[in-house]
Amino acid sequence: MNAAEGVFVRYVGLRFLIRFIGILALFVVVIQMLNLLSNSREILAAKGAGWDSLTKYVLLHSPQVVAQFTPFAALLAVVVTLSTLNMSNEITVMRAAGMSVHRVLFPIGCVCAGIALFHFAFNETVAVGAERRLAYWKANDYATDLPPDSGTRTNVRLVHNGEYIYAGSAARVDKGVWLNNLTISKLTPEGLIDGETEARAARYQNGKWRLFDVRSFDVATLKVTRTASADWPEGVDPEILFALSFNPDQTSLRELWRKIVELREEGADARSATTSFLSRFSKPMATLAMPLLGAIAGFGVGRQGNQLQRAVVGGALGFSYFVGENMMLALGKLGVAPAMLGAFFPFSLFMVVGFSILLAMES
Prior knowledge:
By secondary structure, this protein is of the alpha+beta class. The protein is 61% helix and 18% strand. The protein has helices spanning 3-45, 51-87, 90-96, 101-139, 238-244, 253-265, 271-294, 307-334, 339-362; strands at residues 153-160, 163-173, 176-187, 193-205, 208-218, 223-231. Strands 1-2-3-4-5-6 form a six-stranded antiparallel β-sheet, with helices on one face. A hairpin with a 4-residue loop joins strand 5 and strand 6. Helix 7 packs parallel to helix 9 (339-362).
């Protein structure tokens, strides 16, 4: 790389980076303002809440916004940077000097690679923990004197041994497990509810479950019975309960992989967790495809007056990537598509599309 090319790389790369930071900051500010408008009343309703609670909410929610919108901010920064360079005829000069389309996009691609690495590291070291603490805080109504989370699960929902189980919360206490607001729905082979049992609480200790303040309903007889306590002989194993009810988005990569191994050893369905594990790599990689999808915004004859159209097409290509990514991840988590396909198919497909566009523009 000669001196002139070095100046070009720094010039284009810096302009793109500045726009990326500005757009991402704008996303964070706007979304945080909207979230505070909708949640501030609940946050301040807690006893002793004040400006410190609002500040805590912003600090815990901002990492999620940054991790979620980093690829989209990169797409918009690519479109804006290339559009302004084209409208000022700078790309025309570069092309006249013998630079290929790939060479013009090289500095943007380098910055996007750095952004992808930052995205992955930031998500694993900051965003995951912040999302877990925010979910725990929200589940406890934004209490100001909340003790540290000790592995509590909230809104537990799972199907096990022909039963649909819902619990408001699950926590480990005194070498046992405590469930609150438990509902157990017995399912027929056709998936219909055959009976339902509600309990104010349930405790697992010494290898068995005990339900408290129990209300049972039998569909066949339409009879409701109430008892102070009862056994739950078909109860789910606590380790399986915690393994099946964990939130992959709030779990570190190492812990997530350990949960996947546990699910497979127990013979449980691990497809959703595996798809979530692979998506932790595919989502940051989305930034690498943005220069290819947004490149159409920067190449063309400016006097044709279709700059806005090319910018819209570039943005639409990037937006379609995110739609396809979310759809394939959903299919992977439901088990309709293999986990690897659900996580990486959109990235592979749009990389091929992007390189095809580049080759067409090059020719």
